[in-house]
Amino acid sequence: MKDRYQNRIELLQGTLDLLVLQTLRWGPQHGYGISRVIQSQSGDILRADTGSLYPALHRLEQKKWIVANWKTSENEQRVRVYRLTPKGRTQLADERSRWEQLSCAIARILDAPKKEFET
Amino acid sequence: MKWPWRKRYNELDEEIRAHIEMSARERQERGESAEDARAAALREFGNVGLVKETTRDTWAYASIEQLWQDVQYGLRMMRRSPAFTAVAVLTLALGIGANTAIFSAVNGILLDPLPYPDSSRLVRIERSQIAWGFSAAEVNDIRQQCTALERLAAYEGSSALVRGTDLADHRDVVFVSADYFPLLGVKPLLGRPILLEDTQPGNDRVTVLSYRLWRNFFGDDPGILGRTVSVGEQRYMVIGVMPRSFDLGRGAESFAGLWAPISSTSPNSQVRRGTTNAMIARLKRGVTVGELNAQLKTISARLAAARPTFQNDGGLDIITSSLKHQVFSDVKSALLILLGAVGFVLLLACVNVSALLLSRAWTRQREFAIRRTLGATEFRLARQLLCESFLLAAAGGALGLLFSLWGIRVIHLIAPPGTPRLDHVILDSHVLSFTAGVSILSAILFGLAPALQAASRRVGRAVTGEFGSSFARGVGRQRHWLRTALIISEVALALILATGGALMGRSFYKLMDLDSGTQADHVLTMSVKLSDSACQKGHDTNCALTLRNILDDARALPGVQQTAASLSSSPFDGGATVEGIHYPGEPLGLGLYIDGEPENRISNGSIGERIVTSGFFSALGMRLLRGRDFELSDLRPNPPMKAGSEAYCTSGDPPVAIVSESFARTYVTGDPIGKRFSTCMDKDGASLWTEIIGVVNDVRDHSLKKYAPSLAYYVPFSSANSWLLVVRTSSDPMAIAPSLERALQSVDKDSSITNVQTVAQLVADSAAEPRFDATLLGSFGALGLIIAMIGIYGAISYATAQRTHEIGVRMALGARRSDILRLIVGQGAILAIIGILIGLAGAIGLTRFLRGMLFEVAPTDPVTFIGVAILFVFTALLASYIPARRAMRVDHMVALRYE
Fold first, then answer.
1. Residues of chain B with pLDDT under 50
2. Nearest in space to B280 (alpha carbons), one of B123, B467, B437, B51
3. CA B506/CA B856 separation, integer angstroms
4. Beta carbons of B55 and A58 less than 8 Å apart
């Protein structure tokens, strides 16, 4: 069973918030849906662990970046659906640019010629 | 019980259930069997419980929920060790209750401001020698010249029999100038205040009643305005009633029964002459009392220059004091000392509970260790313990509040009569918040050290490592050190408290042992007012006859040994006081001059003048040391008053007098019998002489606390329409009262009797203040002793329990039981002795604050100090003897197997 997770990558602390917000950009979604989207859009590499996803959803809700409503799905299933708030939208833009700066910086360090580090 | 978050719990359950179902449905759609799909979905989801818990942690009220758990857990712990809980809660309740009670007194008496607007600007202006007073001209001079003052009012207090519909009794009557009420700034509840036109002769028989007098004498009658009230010999029309808030205690400006205007036809001779004892004034905004004093000094010097005979006399010095200080200075120091002492009690209680908690933490090691292994953080553990401390403090505070209700009742019962604003001493919102604050503070005080220590990682690891056989010594020693320090400081604190209480008690018993100069038991006094038909003014022979008949008839009653009369409201009341020198030829002198003695013989004394009938001394059990008692021939009727002469003589011109022992010793050289002195003079300035015919022993007057050999002389009187009847009985004096009243009524059926009381009660009243202080400080001391005893007992029990193994080894090796006893009791004794030594040092430093309250006992009285120290040693021995006995009985085989 462990093998199945071997080629998956542990999510960096804090990045899950960004991914959740990004997922909700395309419309309201329930917890299961969000985990499915993260899994499929990352090409099955990333996986939102439920032990992290649900605390993250409730935390974001607490911060009023997302709001939750109960809706009934086509299978007569009552589901809790999360939606991005205007505040969350701004937050997403912020986090996104911060992430881009971070990954850019990391990439620069990784791509730098070895010599420069030695001097 | 989780009502506030139950809905969210259910919603989270449903959310997670939906997640799993959707996941399972998807798998089913991909072709898996229903069972497999569900199992896979569950597997994929992970630990449902853990997900729920971590999610719940993000909720805003997660910490409240945890707190609730802590509270529930704490309550369970309290229930599980009821003995510990009872001791801790009781200790705290005693401390908090005592503090609440004393604070309610401080709050009611000291913290509430005077009921006058802007009362900090009010000052009282007096002469250093009250008898000099201020003439109307002087009052005017000061009013005009003193720019520091916004307003100035003169007043003069006296006392008179006031008759109401329900009651007749002596009450304070204050004659006031028209500025008085506007200056204090309080409007009457009914009617109007005293105005300028009321001070004109002819309009001046009007009065404003205090709320208390209105209520007690007239039963709140709303139609009181316009009715007349009999005050002494006069009748006054009621023009106003002051509000309840205007009533302060005795010694305060507005305690008066009623107020009347100052005028030249007032019944009070001082006022009639235009002289008043005191003024109150309102300072201009921003002016200090110091600036006022400087101005008054200049004015006073000018006044003195205009009256050359007053120079060289301290009587002209003007004293100013803030009104607030004046009213409360007496009670203030006593209350602050009590507040300090009671703070010590609380500190002691906290130290005690802290030591108890530390001891108990040892028995809870395993519990903490388990909780830590289960993932509890240090913070969570410390919070848990603090929460338990808060629960203890809350229980202690609640019980303490109950105790304080009882304590406040005791304060009301034993407070000295005349304590200002005693009816303000109640449990109000200030006191309640004080109690809450004190409870929280004490929880932090006693709970912090045990919480931090129990939560510290060292302990936790020590426990998880090797709990049981050889408990981590290092940690044990550290904790032991802290607890030892707590016990020692507890003993020291308790010793300081007990020393203070013992000093007060010793001082009080010295006061009680003091010879009052009289035999107070079996003496009854009552104020008698004869009717107009029996004693009319100007018919002195009639009055004298009535008085003599009453005294004779009363003396003939069974059970009555002696009867006498006195012109004062109580036998110990000095009556009029004569102060300073009386210079022959000086018309305004109110003083005393002894024939043949140097004139400067009496300069600053205060001499009581008591007007009595024969038999007064034997009725009160006083001893006639020399000479003779008054006789009928001395009791000649007062000569008709010459116009103007009564201004200078308080009692006409008594031909003979009996002086007190100290009077004779202080002022008269040689044999006093046959010597003459003078207190007044006739219109032409010639001295009227009084001959000394006897000497009696000194009596203590006014109050026990201010005991000084009383300088007094007694002069006889024969007729008056109201006087104090003094009766010595052979049995219970109160039982005689009805037959006395009947005897009185048979002589004068319209006479009135008020103020029936025993002299024993009067003496007890005068001792009320030292008794109050001694009782409270004494009980705080006793409380401290008990708490310290509990502390020592707890510490020794705990230490002995820890050493059970060691004791078993010792006994197995041949130690006798007496050795074990010595070992354990010795341990307690060492703790106690260190604590006692520290406490003695602290007591020497602190008891000097009691100096003002002690009578003939030094603040470092060695007898008290040694006595208290010995008491503490015995207490400590007793407290450690009980656990030592238990240890002695230990079966050493059991003890060896103990671990």
1. 1-2, 130, 250-254, 309-315, 459-475, 574-575, 579-590, 600-601, 603-604, 639-651, 702-705, 899
2. B123
3. 9
4. yes
Hey, which bits of B73-143 come out as E strands?
Answer: 122-127, 134-135
Local structure of B711: helix, strand or coil: coil
Distance CA B720, CA B568 (A): 11
Neighbours of B369 (CB within 10 A): 18
Q: SS3 of B321, please? A: strand
With an 8 Å Cβ cutoff, is B45 touching chain A?
Answer: yes
pLDDT attached to residue B651:
45
Residue B642 is classified by DSSP as P
Interchain CB distance below 8 Å, B54 and A51? yes
| DSSP code for B477 | H
The first and second tokens of residue B107, run together, are 């709050």
The structure tokens listed for B787 are 């708490």
ipTM of the complex: 0.84
What distance in Å separates the CA atoms of residue B723 and residue B567, rounded to the nearest whole number? 5
Q: What is the C-alpha to C-alpha distance for residues B20 and B578, in angstroms, rounded to an integer?
A: 104
pLDDT at B402: 93
Query: How many Å apart are CA B295 and CA B146, to the nearest integer?
Result: 6
Q: What is the pLDDT of residue B663?
A: 83
**Which pair of tokens denotes residue B513?**
């042992």
Token duo for residue A89:
């939208």
- Cβ atoms of B768 and B512 within 8 Å: the answer is no
Q: Which residues contact residue B668 at a Cβ distance below 8 angstroms, ignoring those fewer than 6 apart?
A: B594, B597, B659, B675, B692
Q: Which residue has the higher pLDDT, B307 or A43?
A: A43
Chain B contact for A89 (CB, 8 A cutoff)? no
Token digits of residue B32 = 């898996």
- CA neighbor of B114 nearest in space, from B3, B18, B249: B249
Which residues in B lie closer than 8 A to residue A59 (C-beta atoms)? 58
Mapping DSSP onto H, E and C, the string for B824-839 reads HHHHHHHHHHHHHHHH
Token pair 């009023």: residue: A64
Q: What confidence score (pLDDT) does residue B472 get?
A: 43
A and B: number of Cβ contacts within 8 A: 58
Closest CA to A61 of A50, A69, A73, A72: A69
